[in-house]
């Protein structure tokens, strides 16, 4: 698993929460396009972006689509390398049992390594 | 939500059904098997059971994930639902020539897949 | 070596994300609101990357901060920004 993440060529960092802005959605769209073109994609959830993984999300109050169905769909695009910044999880008081998908926690000192080891890094 | 721009109509049972410039339904609710047959006709496709089972996979995909699949996830979804023999791009190319993800989505009454050519 | 640009003030949690993303040789360029981080009183926040912090002249000038920068922060103009992007392999922006 660790090895796979090192060799994946696109790293998409998701740092924005669902519903509040379109950054998360745009980051996920980029990841899907890349995967549709056979790029290997790793997602790294940091800060508020971690809340995108929570179970039980819904559409917005005016019926705006949420991002949970897109996260559920990642598997169909063979995007299965999902990393989460441990520090961000702690600061929000969340644990991976509350997440809708299996994730791998990443220590703060490994994040710089991830950025350095991917040929392409897109920050959302 | 499908595109709102109405480009033309197909008429079926005295009802006019709006299509967008690329031939996708403007209102997904307008879809019916008869609509699918009419749209298929425009592509020169006569829908067989093999087509229908793929269209059902597409509609289930959309119901679950709220997006039409690109080619790669479509192949995977068809493979999971109908077996590995059918979960191959060759099979889908034969059924829906050109761009199976796009043509399939159109006939299944879904919006155009956003992340495909 | 990567160049990281940051347009958020030192009070933003985005600073911590940028710092977490920085390798031992990487450079940090402060732009827009990020240039508030050039103030001497904020330097403890940037301790882990001390000596590798740059701030954009134009954004400091427009905020009246040009004369108030900590001496360890290197002030660069747009040309200096371009030079930095050339020196570094890739650029990652934090916002």
Structure, explained:
The complex is a heterotrimer of chains A (124), B (117) and C (95). Chain A has helices at 2-7, 23-36, 68-73, 86-92, 108-117; strands spanning 10-14, 41-45, 81-85, 104-106, 120-123. Chain A is an alpha/beta fold. Chain A has a single domain, classed as 3-Layer(aba) Sandwich (Hypothetical Protein Ychn, Chain: A), CATH 3.40.1260. In chain A, strands 4-3-2-1-5 form a five-stranded parallel beta sheet. The longest helix of chain A has 14 residues, at 23-36. Chain A is globular and about 40 Å long. The two termini of chain A are 24 Å apart. Chain B is mainly alpha-helical. Chain B folds into two domains: 8-42, DsrC protein, N-terminal domain (Dissimilatory Siroheme-sulfite Reductase, Chain: A, domain 1, 2-Layer Sandwich); 49-107, DsrC protein, C-terminal domain (Arc Repressor Mutant, subunit A), CATH 1.10.10. In chain B, 46% of the residues lie in helices and 9% in strands. Chain B contains five helices and two strands; from the N terminus they run E-E-H-H-H-H-H. A two-stranded antiparallel sheet of chain B has the order 1-2. Chain B is globular and about 40 Å long. Chain C is of the alpha/beta class and 95 residues long. Chain C has one domain: DsrEFH-like (Hypothetical Protein Ychn, Chain: A). In chain C, 25% of the residues lie in helices and 22% in strands. Chain C is built from three helices and five strands; from the N terminus they run E-H-E-E-H-E-H-E. Chain C has helices spanning 14-21, 57-62, 78-87, and strands at 2-6, 27-30, 53-56, 74-76, 90-94. Chain C has a five-stranded parallel beta sheet with strand order 4-3-2-1-5. In chain C, helix 1 (14-21) links the parallel strand 1 (2-6) and strand 2 (27-30). The chains are: A alpha/beta (124), B mainly alpha (117), C alpha/beta (95). Chains in contact: A-B, A-C. Chains A and C meet through helix 5 of A and helix 1 and strand 5 of C.
């Amino acid at each position: 698993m660790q090895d796979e993440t090192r060799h994946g060529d696109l790293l998409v960092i998701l740092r924005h929460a669902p519903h509040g802005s379109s950054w998360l959605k745009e980051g996920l769209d980029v990841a899907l396009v890349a995967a549709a073109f056979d790029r290997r994609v790793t997602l790294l959830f940091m800060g508020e972006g971690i809340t995108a993984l929570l179970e039980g999300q819904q559409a917005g109050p005016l019926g705006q689509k949420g991002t949970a169905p897109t996260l559920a769909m990642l598997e169909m695009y063979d995007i299965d390398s999902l990393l989460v910044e441990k520090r961000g999880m702690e600061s929000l008081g969340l644990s991976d049992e509350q997440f809708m998908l299996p994730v791998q926690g990443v220590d703060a000192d490994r994040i710089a390594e991830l950025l350095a080891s991917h040929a392409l890094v897109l920050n959302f | 939500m499908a595109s709102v721009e109405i480009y033309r109509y197909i008429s079926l049972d005295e009802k006019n059904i709006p299509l967008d410039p690329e031939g996708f339904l403007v209102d997904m609710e307008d879809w019916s098997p008869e609509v699918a047959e009419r749209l298929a006709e425009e592509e020169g496709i006569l829908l067989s059971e093999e087509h229908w089972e793929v269209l059902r996979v597409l509609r289930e995909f959309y119901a679950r994930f709220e997006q039409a699949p690109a080619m790669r996830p479509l192949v995977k979804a068809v493979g999971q639902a109908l077996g590995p023999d059918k979960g191959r791009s060759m099979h889908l190319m034969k059924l829906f020539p050109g761009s199976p993800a796009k043509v399939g989505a159109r006939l299944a009454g879904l919006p155009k897949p956003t992340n495909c050519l | 070596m990567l160049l990281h640009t940051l347009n958020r003030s030192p009070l933003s949690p985005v600073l911590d994300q940028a710092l977490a993303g920085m390798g031992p040789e990487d450079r940090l360029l402060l732009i827009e609101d990020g240039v508030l981080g050039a103030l001497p009183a904020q330097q403890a926040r940037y301790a882990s990357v001390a000596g590798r912090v740059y701030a954009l002249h134009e954004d400091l000038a427009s905020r009246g901060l040009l004369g108030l920068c900590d001496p360890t922060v290197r002030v660069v103009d747009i040309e200096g920004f371009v030079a930095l992007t050339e020196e570094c392999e890739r650029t990652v922006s934090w916002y």
